[in-house]
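Sequence in, structure out.
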Amino acid sequence: MSVSPSDHHSGWSPFGTSPRWGWLTPRRRSATARSVLAGEAAAEAARKTSRELEGEGPETAAEPEFPVAGDSLAAAFFDLDNTVMQGAALFHFGRGLYKRKFFQKHELARFAWQQMWFRLAGVEDPAHMEEARDSALSIVKGHRVSELMEIGEEIYDEYMAERIWPGTRALAQAHLDAGQKVWLVTAAPVETATIIARRLGLTGALGTVAESVDGIYTGKLVGEPLHGPAKAEAVRALAAAEDLDLSRCAAYSDSANDIPMLSIVGHPYAINPDTRLRKYARERGWRLRDYRTGRKAAKVGLPAAAGVGALAGGAAAAVALQRRRR
């Protein structure tokens, strides 16, 4: 059965894609047709869910000159992993799936090092992320969208809520207080991103979209993961649909992978930036914010009680790969 993006219910497009997505690397590259498809699908899904999102964020004072109160043509776009939340949302989601017996314990050891590396380095590894996304697609195939949404709500409370960066959340609230819309833009599945946006009181979320038919995941992506150039395409598509002026909008990210998205807005911010983004931002006079207590400490970021078991749980979103290769 052939299903077009507009016929899909937003599906979870966790970590992965097949080997043909190997071109997806940190280097800057022009958007492809699939990037455009992924961006448009994410924008459509985000607009569809934004009306359902309610909540209140913490109060904070806006910066003296920005954001501009009452500017209806402006909005803010926030990356999620290591920008709004410490660590990778999909790894935390994987921990929740493991707890709910989606995986076998012995399958976790091989993948524990991926989460350890991510937390030590504080940056994305495209190869790790690709494997994890590909694996997650295989394990959610056949599951109902409603089931994963319900589980996602529980997982947010268990693993994600305490990892939100207060400083970044305050920036988002400043835009809301100024009467502007605020969107998450992430490679995480749109369902997970939407849950986080709702809990933080944001407008909505642009995330990776996977197809579902009759409310059941097919195991296929719509376009590609919302990563790199695809994020910029998603922001462009949403801005056009919402009649926004990108030169008056802001974007926030920690990763050089998001330079395409940061470059298309008038107010780019580097938040908890990796080495490449910090250098790039300084060369161009972009604003920087670092909410980590210390760069090295933040990169390590391991809970005092964390052991191999906890790290393995954090990498659970990738464990299905082993089963698929048997």
